[in-house]
Specification:
Elements (H helix, E strand, L loop, with lengths): L1 H5 L5 E3 L2 E2 L11 E3 L2 H5 L7 H13 L21 H32 L4 H26 L7 H7 L2 E3 L2 H28 L12 H21 L7 H24 L1 H6 L4 H16 L5 E2 L5 H21 L5 H23 L4 E2 H8 L1
Parallel strand pairs: 3-4
Antiparallel strand pairs: 1-2, 5-6
Helix pairs in contact: 3-5, 3-8, 4-5, 5-8, 7-8, 7-9, 7-11, 9-11, 9-12, 12-13
């Protein structure tokens, strides 16, 4: 009994290889897109900035950064129980998200090679960064006697098709929120080294600069395609993607608050800070952003948290499956209502503010 509490068990495909977590609406997604449409994009309106970003990618600031040192060479059995389980889940989710980026960027670089060499090289170098990140995270998992079979993950995951403009919205936000997540954890642990339970967090400062540069690339791409930003449809879609990214992070993190508590962080305060900073970053390119300063924004997400807890309790009960579905419906409906209300909260029109400033 003591051993089972100390080291939570995970289902394994074979010894030391973890079965990937079940795909849900909250798990990292794998994407594909219309490569022909991407290849036909005219980037001349912002080509100089894109070439400058390419030069930064070529410099490869982190080429010597992701090297494990002596601090990793020890037993991690003292990280046990719920903290161990949540930390492994954190590593898996992060690895899966980075690997998803690698696959998408690698395929884009291959498909665009002959039609848009500038974009192709940018995507190839970003895929290099994401591969390093995923490999470093997967190696960290091996310190806890588990790894992901990334080849199996490539073949077994379902792929979500997004048109190029939606890929840009989603990946821009993914990279920018990744930056704010990593730098916030790094700065906290820099001030409180006693809370740094594992050495991977020492790498987050340089690491998040990769995320920031990737986000700047997608910023430049979108500004080269003003039709993705300058009409009423763009405003609706930007609100949708902002809400999707913020809600997904919040619902995941609050459910795993024990992980953040182990780092000396309050998960809710951490997420609110990351959401506000990412929202501010998005305001530099998106025509609208969400009004995340309103307490209502987080209160409604908290209702979704409580609904999800009740849904989990239903799933874990002995109630027959058909009856479980009936029991779940009110909570599904409540979640849909809360998210709909959040979507229709009055946004902040960045273009109006910028116009007034001029």
């Amino acid at each position: 009994m003591v051993d089972s509490l100390k080291k939570p068990s995970f289902e394994e495909m074979r010894p030391g290889v973890k079965v990937p977590s079940k795909e849900t609406i909250l798990t990292p997604r794998f994407y594909t897109t219309d490569f022909d449409e991407m290849a036909k994009m005219d980037i001349s309106a912002n080509e100089d900035e894109l070439r400058a970003i390419l030069e930064e990618f070529r410099v490869d600031y982190n080429r010597h950064h992701f090297v494990r040192d002596a601090e990793f060479e020890q037993s991690w059995d003292h990280i046990d129980g719920e903290t161990r389980q949540l930390f492994i889940e954190f590593l898996e989710r992060s690895c899966t998200a980075e690997f998803s980026g690698f696959l998408l960027y690698k395929e884009l670089s291959r498909k665009l090679k002959d039609k848009s060499p500038l974009l192709a090289e940018c995507f190839a170098l970003m895929s290099r960064d994401e591969a390093r990140h995923a490999g470093f995270l997967n190696k960290a998992m091996s310190d806890f006697n588990l790894q992901l079979d990334l080849g199996f993950l490539t073949k077994s995951r379902s792929y979500t098709f997004f048109k190029p403009k939606f890929i840009f919205y989603a990946t821009y936000l993914s990279e920018k929120i990744g930056y704010w997540r990593y730098i916030t954890i790094f700065r906290h642990l820099e001030a409180h080294p006693e809370d740094r339970i594992y050495p991977i967090f020492r790498f987050f400062e340089n690491w998040c600069q990769d995320e920031n540069r990737h986000g700047d690339f997608f910023d430049a791409i979108m500004r080269a395609q003003p039709q993705f930003l300058n009409d009423w449809r763009a405003k609706l879609w930007c609100r949708f993607f902002l809400l999707s990214v913020f809600a997904t992070m919040y619902l995941n993190d609050i459910q795993r608050s024990g992980f953040y508590r182990a780092l000396g962080l309050d998960a809710r305060e951490y997420d609110i800070h990351v959401i506000k900073k990412t929202n501010e970053s998005a305001g530099k390119v998106f025509p609208v952003i969400l009004d995340v300063s309103q307490p209502e924004f987080y209160d409604r997400l908290d209702i979704c948290i409580r609904n999800n807890e009740k849904l989990a309790a239903i799933v874990n009960s002995n109630t027959p499956k058909p009856l479980q579905l009936l029991q779940k419906l009110p909570y599904y409906a409540s979640n849909a209502w809360q998210l709909t209300r959040l979507y229709f909260m009055k946004p902040i029109d960045v273009t109006s503010i910028q116009g007034a400033a001029r």
